[in-house]
Amino acid sequence: MPQCAVCARDVSEDIDQPVGVTVAGSPELDPSRGTKRYWEGVWRYFCGLVCRSKFDSTPYEYMETAP
Ligand SMILES: [Zn+2]
């Protein structure tokens, strides 16, 4: 199970699975379940948008927690 790159909390691996469909017909993801980003050759997982924002602003602070 991947861990949040910022706070090391476990992140579900099925975060890409849509939780529903928007009125426009596109798949709807729930970012509160976690999110991920491909960064420097590795997928970084985040437990939520707060941690992803922290990583976005200072990514090198969190490099040592990379898998
Ligand atoms: Zn986190």
SSE blueprint and pairings:
Layout lengths: L19 E2 L5 E2 L6 E5 L2 E5 L2 H9 L10
Bound molecules: zinc ion.
The site of zinc ion (ZN) has 7 residues, from loops.
**Shape, per Cα inertia axes:** elongated
Mean pLDDT: 87
- End-to-end separation: 11 Å
β-strand number: 4
Order of helices and strands: EEEEH
The fraction of residues in strands falls at 15-25%
Helix fraction bin: 10-25%
Describe the biggest sheet? Answer: 2 strands, antiparallel
**Low-confidence blocks of residues:** none
Broad structural category? alpha+beta
* Rg for CA atoms: 13 Å
Number of helices: 1
Bound molecules: zinc ion
Q: In order across it, which strands form the biggest sheet?
A: 1-2
Q: How many domain regions?
A: 1
